[in-house]
Amino acid sequence: MSIEMITLLFFGSLLVFLVLGLPLTFVLGGVSVVFLYFTWGPDAFYMVASQIWSTMGSFSLVAIPLFVFMAMVLERTGVAKDLYRMMFLWWGGLRGGLAIGTLVICAIFAAMCGISGAAVVAMGTIALPSMLDRGYDKRMVLGCINTGGGWGILIPPSILMILYSLITGVSVGQMFAAGVLPGLLLMVLTCAYILIRCYFQPELAPALPKEERASWPEKIKALRAVILPMLIVVMVLGSIIAGITTPTEAAAMGVFGALLSALVYRKMSWELMRDASIRTFKLTGMIMWILFAAHAFSAAYQSMGAQELFEGWITSIPGGPWAVIITMMVIIFFLAMVLDPVGIMLITLPVFLPVVKAMGFDPVWFGILFVINMEIGYMTPPFGFNLFYLKGVVPPSITMKDIYVSVIPFVLVEIVGIALIMMFPEIATYLPQLFF
Fold first, then answer.
1. How large is the average pLDDT for residues 23-51?
2. How far apart are CA 155 and CA 161, in angstroms?
3. 161 partner at 20 to 30 Å CA-CA among 194, 199, 207, 366?
4. Which residue did the predictor score with more confidence, 332 or 237?
């Protein structure tokens, strides 16, 4: 049987089982194992086992349960509430100021924990009612929280970046360093969009009346809310970039910071520890199956000769290397609308990354573009995770249509960010080259 026919059957089988609604991880792993058996025989299983064994021995893998546990603990402390009060006092007197403050809080949350849902749920519970009560346009508020929540997978520490590194062999530390400036860029672009739009349409996000604005002593006092979050950020991100710790050691320091926050806010209890531990075990177990599927898929894809076939197809796209990269971005963008980020990672990275390297592009730079696309996937219909996190905490008067429509201008802002990083790769590569 020709390589073309085997490749067509392989991807056709994946598509059929996915349409039937089976879990993506088990579809990828199961179909890959079956095809490996019929193309290479039983000896092929040793190849998968050897690849998985090398990954299981990776010290970076320990960071995943630690970062997940840190996020689970921080989710239950009072950090978000105090941060919002501080932003309310400092930014409330500006048109769109509460929305900008919410975005800054989301960026801080992203720099403390490596998942997306924590900031969305926290800001949807605390910031959303406050802004709606003060006359903010509901769609602007929804889009703002949705967008800021997605930065949890871009601004390090990021669990998705750790998975990208494990699948591709790229340094976790370099990925973390590469995510800092793009994350700040997207925050600045989004804040600028809100400021410009509120300047021309002040009714969308009115400033607080003068009698509700805080005095300078109140503002200075409120800054205490930033001390603990900044301490955690320095412990985690600062120690990695400074070369003091590895990402895994920094994750352990982050857990210590999260537990310290729980003590300070008097939230520490056996119930909190039990719930956070159980959720961490569940997520970590799922991630282990994801890694098995990734290695099985990669082994099957390469062993049947599909990699060379696909490289030939994609490099023949007219327009040269940049046309290939743009095509990849478009494919990933649309996949992100219907699949979860880890699934897209499993399907596309074994296919795309060899081509990216062959064309001379930096895999760290490509990884940042990939993660931003995954972030957009979190906020875009029909299956963006943040959409459903948000729906779970909004008032009944806000419909799913409101949430869907709210993301449109913010997605366009994110696309502008991707374009800037493509035109100026140094935004993503400067810090990795400086510190590593």
1. 78
2. 10
3. 194
4. 332
Cα separation values, 113 from 97, 210, 392, 416, Å? 24, 36, 21, 25
Joined tokens for residue 76: 């239950």
CA distance 130 to 136: 9
- The DSSP H or E segment spanning 21 is none
**Residue 54 vs residues 58, 85, 190, 351: alpha-carbon distances, Å:** 7, 47, 41, 21
Omega before residue 395 within 30° of 0, cis? no
Residues 259/114/433/105 CA torsion (nearest 10 deg) = -80
Q: pLDDT tens digit string along 329-357?
A: 998 888 888 777 777 887 788 788 888 99
Collapsing DSSP states into helix, strand and coil, what is residue 407?
coil
H or E element: which one contains 35?
helix 24-40
Beta-carbon count within 10 A of 400 CB: 14
Give Cβ neighbours of residue 58 (< 8 Å, ≥ 6 apart).
166
Residue linked to tokens 């301490």? 231
In this prediction the pTM is 0.82
**What amino acid is encoded at 207 in this protein?**
A
In 201-246, which ranges are continuous DSSP H helix?
Answer: 216-222, 227-233, 239-241
Q: Which residues fall within 8 angstroms of residue 425, CB to CB, at 6 or more apart?
A: 362, 365
CA distance linking residue 84 with residue 105, whole number of Å: 7
